[in-house]
């Protein structure tokens, strides 16, 4: 039995492709649609909506600022517009890059930053701090808080991709195989 365990352990230790590939699969299965649907709620009408976020986009991203201007987006600054557009596009572009495995480390790091900002907005902008179950706590026997429990897992999966890359079944791997520096090293 010991030799079987050792053989399986050795084989798994050499399976460098498995962890990043599974991390991308878990991301696609659990978070891709979540972020895309969230991004869709932020788009304005028609093609121009890519550059003119919905009122809901501003309300989600800047809840206190929107309340202060009684939900009149014309009273917000260009900075608010730029953040709303960039945040909306990020919810489409970064997850897509992760799933196809292109610029994966960069995209995963961007998603970590996105989740941190999203969590801070939920806590401070949307009043999550007033509800201890939203922030949650580790080591408390409950696994259902939005920030400390759920988003910690999200960030962990993304950090796997930042550290390990996309794995061999990705556009990153295909690009590496086709670059002259890599080809000359394999000659």
TrEMBL record:
Give yes or no: UniProt keyword Transmembrane helix: yes
The places in or outside the cell where this protein is found are:
Membrane
Which sequence ranges are marked TM in the entry?
Answer: 21-37, 79-99, 153-175
Provide the membrane topology annotation. Answer: Multi-pass membrane protein
Positions the record marks as coiled coil are none
Q: Write the record's keywords in alphabetical order, separated by commas.
A: Membrane, Transmembrane, Transmembrane helix
Which domain of life does the protein's organism represent? Answer: Bacteria
* Matching InterPro entries: DoxX
- Its GO CC terms? membrane
Q: What is this protein called in UniProt?
A: DoxX family protein
What organism is listed for this UniProt entry?
Answer: Roseobacter insulae
């Amino acid at each position: 039995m010991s030799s079987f365990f050792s053989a399986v352990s050795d084989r798994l230790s050499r399976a460098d492709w498995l962890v990043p590939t599974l991390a991308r699969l878990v991301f696609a299965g659990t978070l891709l649609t979540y972020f895309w649907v969230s991004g869709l709620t932020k788009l304005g009408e028609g093609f121009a909506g890519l550059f003119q976020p919905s009122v809901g986009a501003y309300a989600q991203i800047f809840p206190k600022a929107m309340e202060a201007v009684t939900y009149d987006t014309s009273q917000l600054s260009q900075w608010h517009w730029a953040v709303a557009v960039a945040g909306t596009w990020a919810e489409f572009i970064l997850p897509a890059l992760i799933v196809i495995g292109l610029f994966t480390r960069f995209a995963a790091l961007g998603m970590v930053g996105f989740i941190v900002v999203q969590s801070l907005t939920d806590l401070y902008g949307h009043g999550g701090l007033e509800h201890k179950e939203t922030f949650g706590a580790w080591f408390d026997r409950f696994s259902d808080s939005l920030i400390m429990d759920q988003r910690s897992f999200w960030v962990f999966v993304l950090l796997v991709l930042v550290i390990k890359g996309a794995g061999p079944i990705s556009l990153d791997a295909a690009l590496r195989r086709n670059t002259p520096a890599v080809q000359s090293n394999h000659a």
